[in-house]
Amino acid sequence: MRYAIRIRKDSNNTYLVTVPDLPEAITFGETMEEAKLQAVDAIETAMMARMSDREAIQEPKGTGRYYVELRPAVAAKVALWNAMLQQGLGKAALARKLKWHLPQVDRALDVRHESTLGALVEALKATGNSLSISVSANKHQRRAA
Questions:
Q1: Which of 37, 52, 86, 111 is most exposed, with the fewest beta carbons within 10 Å of its own?
Q2: Taking residues 125-130, what's their average pLDDT?
Q3: 15 with 8: CB under 8 angstroms?
Q4: Full-model pTM
Q5: Count of CB atoms within 10 A of residue 72's CB?
Q6: Which residues are registered as beta bridge partners of 15?
């Protein structure tokens, strides 16, 4: 998941960050790099709030000069959450389908928890979905001499 972010120098000499696709995600950093790192945290916090409010999390659509990339597992967790909402499937019902304890489902949905790929594949399968992965060369990485 790649989110566009807007960064502007604030009046107190920090960098203010907003996220067009998640208007509630607002943060700042002392430097441009810190602002980008804080943006990831703000996006994850906004996602967790939306899950808590039982709201869908839309795919990012914004464009801009700056972007932050979330971990692939976060995309899988968001897909799982959205599938559960579409199906009216609560956490307890998913736990029963998977024969998991409720804390396992909570961890599978927690965007800050390092869930195993196997657990996410299994949970998505229980909602009638599958997980596919693609690998591509990093265009910005320099080749070794």
A1: 52
A2: 96
A3: yes
A4: 0.88
A5: 14
A6: 9, 29
